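SAMPLE LOG
Freezer: B-3
Tube label: C17
Construct: single chain, 307 aa
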Amino acid sequence: MIIRERTNWLKMLFIWKGSVLRKIIPQLLIITLFSLVVLYFKGNIYDYKVHLNPAIFTLLGLSLAIFMGFCNSAGYDRFWEGRKLWGSLVIETRSLTRQVLTLINDNSEDSKIKKQEFVKMIAAFCWLLNFQLRSKNADDKIQELLSTENFEKIRNKKFKPVILLNIMGEWINKQNHEKNMDTIVLTSMDNRLNELSHIVGGCERIANTPLPFAYSVLLHRTVYLYCFWLPFGLVDVVGFMMPVIVLFISYTFIALDAIIQEISEPFGEEENDLALNSLCKTIQFSIFEQAQIPQPELEVSNSYFID
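STRUCTURE (predicted):
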């Protein structure tokens, strides 16, 4: 995901990273070449003159813009819900870390080490959720955070974050049996684990339920049919400037179509998807700092692709 400071209007015109222009250049080149061919033959196909009234494209463009606005809202809702879920994850992990560090009534050195191991499990949970949503193998990262015993428990599981929640619940229950906390604290910490489980379910819902395919197909087809018909409607109206006008209009519609497809899958690894790696690093740094676990400084930049 791009995290960039606001810049002036002139620089915004030439920004490349984070723009969908790179993805749609081939389509724009094809449409521009097609427009030049239409201009060369003055809208004729063999001996037949294709007559398309520009007013038709006004009506079609308005309808298309309304439909694209609906799809864009639906796509952004998915993106924003994903961000809210990960924002809740930041809050819940910090709160659970605080409870473990301050509400367990055993301040021995051995207990401190065990608490730090639990905090590492919290960080591992975030990374596991990240990698599950992106269908990537998390073993190398998780081995650094979990004990050998716990790593082997989740290694071959399909829903690894859920299994790790079970291990965390067992750890908390053991502290209760050892009289290191009362039932009120136990209930509170169990509620935190439930919230983490809700976050996993919410993320899985977004990841496993894309926008209805019929919407995507209809939008995609309509955009490209509109852009390829447009040269015939404008060739007699704007003359030699027609390819430029068609290019600009095509860029607007095709780019928005590409943006909708990109943000509707917020857990991917494209430049405008959620920066899950950065969020995990922030969570890990924050809770390790709470638990006084040694770690390198967190590098944060607001001017480039950070995930």
